[in-house]
Amino acid sequence: MSPVESGTVEETTLTPDVQWWQSAVIYQVYPRSFADGDGDGVGDLAGLTARLPYIASLGVDGIWMTPFQPSPQLDQGYDVSDYCGVDPLFGTMEQFDALLELAHSLGLRILLDVVPNHCSSEHPLFQQALAAGPGSQKRDMFHFVEGSDDDVPPNNWQSVFGGRAWSRANPESLTDTDWYLHLFSAGQPDWNWRNPAVGDYFDGVLRFWFDKGVDGLRIDVAHALFKAEGLPDSPSAGGVVDGLRSNPQVSDQEEVHEVYRRWRTLAEKYEPHRLLVGEVNLEPARAARYTRADEMQQAFAFAFVKLGWDPAAWAAAGNELEAARRLHGATPTWALENHDIVRSVTRFGGGELGAMRARAALVALLGLPGPAYLYQGQELGLPEVDVPLECRVDPMWARGGVCRDGARVPLPWIADAALNHGFSLAEPAIAFQASEPWLPQPADWGTHAIELQQEDPESSLALVTKALEMRRLLWKSEVFGPNDGGSWRVEAGNLLICERSADFFVAVAMGTEPVKLPAGTVLLSAAPLAEDGWLQPDNAAWVLRR
Ligand code: BGC
């Protein structure tokens, strides 16, 4: 029974000083794989615009779009060659403006990705730096360092994508013995944030998009912008692994906080204030420092991304985040999936079991205290795809062996495989055309199709839509509030509990036997209850103590 039917929850008006983003759920769009509007097999702005009503119908508050700016597409757009444009692969600036207008009219906010750690080696400023030669001011926008020997780079830093983090600026030249730093691929040179001109340049980038009415930014590798003065060797033997954490010289330098203070000031010059959300892949106590009152408003909590179906580990991670919240007032911003992470269905065991657990995890996620992000296809329960070797394009796969393509396969809109599951639309109307998608869709993709799930009240899509509706109601009725915390524990039978407030808790059955819930009214569950007040294994519930 829903609280509306039972009369358990009454709607009141949301307290005016609660900011929109405190209760928000944002849907991440990976434009290449969302919908293709021009039939070339690559998703684009026209496709996304045509499908905005679908996103609005989920009941989310906004969209985060991964990069669509001009780029050689070496790292699928995370190698930006023009921060203030639209890559023709995705469309035009006029199309972006139309998208923004339609999104706003549908009540959806738009967040864009900004990539301030590095650009593309095709970026004009990098090209000018290369041409200007050793010792020039232009090279000081990046990390160019003279090397004594062809084979000995300036220090021992490793690239996140594998191999060393340095390449020769001009391997053909006998006089240009500089190397340049790239924490990712050689096509992604790192900016030198110790040069004030870099900060000024990015102020312009932020203003450009904020002036257009973009509602906020997701900040790529936000903790890596500053490198230790003098670029010393990393003491860690293995170099950079685990999201840059193991190289203290490139991660979490104190100076980086000044950037976010400056950006927050800029974001608050706009009405409504613009939102900053950081990809800060650090332990919770360090990550929380990026969301102090004068820095970003949000930083992703990826706590459960690296964990299996283990209640003690979830409770420990949850309590660690809560401790960080108490210390810095940093409410966790939850995410279980994104374009870099193996899909949760697969992480949690794959097949039927993985699908059940992913549903339970989704219900848990949306009931936890704090904003949440969903990744396109997560609402459909899409599994990770084992992309055939010859079709893999991820540079990380090419350099290091880890492949992220399996979470990036184009969405199945319709069941019909002959039409490539409706991924490509024929303009101007919504008709389909069978264009070869940029990554192949697997044989069973049609079973997850949106058109089927929209008709099925038991589908993953129906569950997410219901959870989002209930979540809004709980915010409106002030059962959910901005100051809710999370007190986590594991009860008998491996029942994970997160007490959000005196009134509400989330329960996840992570054991092998049905478990009895503590007393309360079940508002939502991922699957039907075993019997009144009992959860089957791999089910989750929202419980109101009234
Ligand atoms: C993005 C990745 C990208 C990397 C380099 C990450 O955090 O999410 O997709 O490859 O930054 O820009």
What topology does this entry show?
Elements: H1 3-6, E1 25-29, H2 45-58, E2 62-65, H3 93-105, E3 109-114, H4 124-132, E4 144-146, E5 166-168, E6 178-181, H5 196-212, E7 216-219, H6 256-267, E8 275-278, H7 284-287, E9 298-301, H8 311-328, E10 333-335, H9 344-347, H10 351-367, E11 372-375, H11 395-400, E12 425-426, E13 431-432, H12 450-454, H13 460-476, E14 487-491, E15 495-499, E16 504-509, E17 515-516, E18 521-525, E19 534-535, E20 540-544
Parallel strand pairs: 1-2, 1-11, 2-3, 3-7, 7-8, 8-9, 9-10, 10-11
Antiparallel strand pairs: 4-6, 5-6, 12-13, 14-15, 15-16, 16-20, 17-19, 18-20
The structure holds beta-D-glucopyranose.
Residues 75, 78, 115, 184, 220-221, 279, 339-340 line the site of beta-D-glucopyranose (BGC).
Please explain how this structure is put together.
The longest helix has 18 residues, at 311-328. Helices cover 26% and strands 14% of the residues. It is globular, with a radius of gyration of 24 Å. The model is unreliable at 1-7 and 239-243 (pLDDT under 50). Among the domains are: 27-34 and 47-117 and 196-229 and 242-409, Glycosidases (TIM Barrel, Alpha-Beta Barrel), CATH 3.20.20.80; 124-181, Oligo-1,6-glucosidase, domain 2, CATH 3.90.400. Helix 2 (45-58) runs parallel beside helix 3 (93-105) and helix 10 runs parallel beside helix 13 (460-476). The protein is built from 13 helices and 20 strands. The chain has an eight-stranded parallel beta barrel. A five-stranded antiparallel sheet has the order 14-15-16-20-18, with helices on one face. 51% of the residues are buried. It is α/β, with parallel strands linked by helices. Helix 6 (256-267) links the parallel strand 7 (216-219) and strand 8. Beta-D-glucopyranose binds at residues 75, 78, 115, 184, 220-221, 279, 339-340. Beta-D-glucopyranose (BGC) binds at residues 75, 78, 115, 184, 220-221, 279, 339-340.
